[in-house]
């Protein structure tokens, strides 16, 4: 009975993890496609309407601003799915506790040996 509960918990946790990863990749694909489209529209608009050369249009901050600001959001989404969540997970806490306990044990042994 307890094994079934543990397996179900593992399944639910894995399913949530897959959903989070899928959500990040969907966000990332939307980020790439939308920004390519927006950059193309801005470049075409600058070269056609304002008569800028392609070099001037490419050096315009408006072409890259959405990439930059939305990219910050994508970075934090990535950090939440792959980076930060793993760094500060329950496993990390347990490993850190074990590490600190081991260091304390070593210090105690050194004091006893003196």
Identify the notable features of this structure and list them briefly.
114 residues; mainly alpha
Write the layout of secondary structure elements.
Elements: H1 2-48, H2 54-58, H3 61-87, H4 90-113
Short recap of the structure:
This protein is mostly helical and 114 residues long. It is 90% helix and 0% strand.
Low-confidence stretches: none
Strands, total number: 0
Q: What is the residue-mean pLDDT, rounded to a whole number?
A: 86
Main beta sheet strand tally, sense and closure: none
Description:
It is a single chain. With 114 residues, the chain is mainly alpha-helical. It has one domain. The protein is 90% helix and 0% strand. It has helices spanning 2-48, 54-58, 61-87, 90-113. α1 runs antiparallel to α3 (61-87). It is elongated and about 80 Å long. The model has no long low-confidence stretch (mean pLDDT 86).
